[in-house]
Amino acid sequence: MAVVTMRELLDAGVHFGHQTRRWNPKMRRFIFTDRNGIYIIDLQQTLTYIDEAFEFVKETVAHGGTLLFVGTKKQAQEPIQEEAERVGMPYVTHRWLGGMLTNFQTVSKRIARMKELQAMDAAEDGYAGRGKKEVLMLTRERIKLERVLGGIADMSKVPSALWIVDTNKEHIAVSEAQKLRIPVVAVLDTNCDPDVVDFPIPGNDDAIRAVKLLTRIVGEAVVAGKQQREERQLAAAREAAGDTEDKRDADAVQASQATAEAAAANTDAPQAVTPVEQPQDQPAQGE
């Protein structure tokens, strides 16, 4: 079954690129033609690259990896956050902090500070003994940290891969991922550089519908990977307990054979004959 159809891509406007004067020559191989000064992306290639990216994300998650969703441009913020929260993955929808990957140790300290302030705010007497000005300053600090780091609050280590919308805008994230050799899956418009992405998906990164569709596809890959991971864990647990499928089949065959043998034994056994009492001769009348 196809991950997505050509009709869905066309309806979402994934085939529309940038103006012909705003392009990257390296994207030439992904361009089908141009119309009215706008490049048209070859969706046949897009379908192929979507399948490759889908399989990669699914396998990454199936092996216990995490995918960081990144999209700070206005069109991408809502789809990125919604899909990441739906599949339980970290995300960045506001400003990308420099060093979020390469200096994750420091970033994790800021995450711990944010959680500390959240716990303080949730407690009834969390601000006990503090003045109004200090409480106001702490509240502002918490809101600022939540805005920037809220999406990665549960990310305990560097992610296994990144999903990026608009690699030109998120060039710092791409650069950090390259330094740490973290694979990047990204949608590439006609003004992007395909060489900096491991799993490119040629498409429109400006239209909200296009971004939403492509991000949903990546989210579905995450869901499929989680299901595969659960199936593998269940199979491993059964194998560790000696409850493999072959053993269950053998037990079922043994049980059916035992039932058949018992039935055959009952059929072959001699049946006990109950003697029938003969009626005694009645004395004739007059005797």
Layout of helices and strands, plus pairs?
Elements lengths: L5 H7 L3 E4 L11 E5 L2 E4 L1 H20 L4 E4 L3 H14 L3 E2 L11 H19 L9 H18 L11 E5 L5 H9 L4 E5 L10 E4 L5 H33 L4 H24 L19
Parallel strand pairs: 4-5, 4-6, 6-7, 7-8
Antiparallel strand pairs: 1-3, 2-3
Describe the structure.
The radius of gyration is 33 Å and the shape is flat. Helices cover 50% and strands 11% of the residues. The protein has helices spanning 6-12, 43-62, 74-87, 104-122, 132-149, 171-179, 208-240, 245-268; strands at 16-19, 31-35, 38-41, 67-70, 91-92, 161-165, 184-188, 199-202. The chain folds into two domains: 6-101 and 158-236, Rossmann fold; 103-156, Helix Hairpins, CATH 1.10.287. With 287 residues, it is α/β, with parallel strands linked by helices. The strands form two sheets. It has a five-stranded parallel β-sheet, with helices on both faces. It has a three-stranded antiparallel β-sheet with strand order 1-3-2, with no helix packed on it.
